[in-house]
Specification:
With about 150 residues, the protein is an alpha+beta fold. It has 2 helices and 8 strands; from the N terminus they run αββββββββα.
């Protein structure tokens, strides 16, 4: 068995190893390797009384992301509602309830959870506003017709 001796010391090995590690980490953490953490631009808890909202996040490099929605904070039975490179999505048609959202870039960790509480206006309030609007509309039409009749 032959024994080979090299003239490379441990210190010289460290000198070459450290820049290699730094370059590798830079490659994978700057978006090229898509290991960037995507963050929401909203508060952690959002209230909606209309059943729709614009959910947005920071994605300056426009890397592919995955957005999940769940009805429980543990994301059991979560569904993917968006995959793509955009930085926002319009959510609509949501029923009363609580929804949880999280997002990630491909190959990275999930973001913090955003909680959306949807509580629509009461049906009685909606009908009262409709009736009030109908009365105002009828009053305006009556004034226009009466004014036109008095001029003739």
């Amino acid at each position: 068995m032959h024994s080979f001796k090299t003239n490379v010391s441990r210190q010289q090995t460290r000198i070459y190893l450290i820049p290699t590690i730094i370059i590798t980490l830079t490659f994978f953490l700057n978006g090229t390797g898509q290991a960037e953490l995507i963050l929401f631009t909203h508060n952690k808890v959002i209230e909606s009384d209309a059943g729709y909202m614009l959910l947005s996040w920071k994605n300056p490099l426009r890397i592919p992301v995955e957005l999940q929605q769940a009805s429980h904070s543990t994301f059991v039975n979560a569904t993917t509602v968006y995959r793509g490179k955009n930085s926002s999505i319009m959510l609509s048609g949501l029923s009363d309830g609580t929804y949880y959202y999280r997002i990630r870039a491909q190959g990275s960790l999930w973001s913090d959870t955003v909680t959306l509480h949807v509580s629509h206006h009461a049906l009685v309030k909606a009908w009262l506003l409709f009736i009030l609007g109908a009365c105002v509309f009828s009053g305006i039409v009556w004034v226009i017709i009466r004014g036109a009749a008095s001029e003739s």
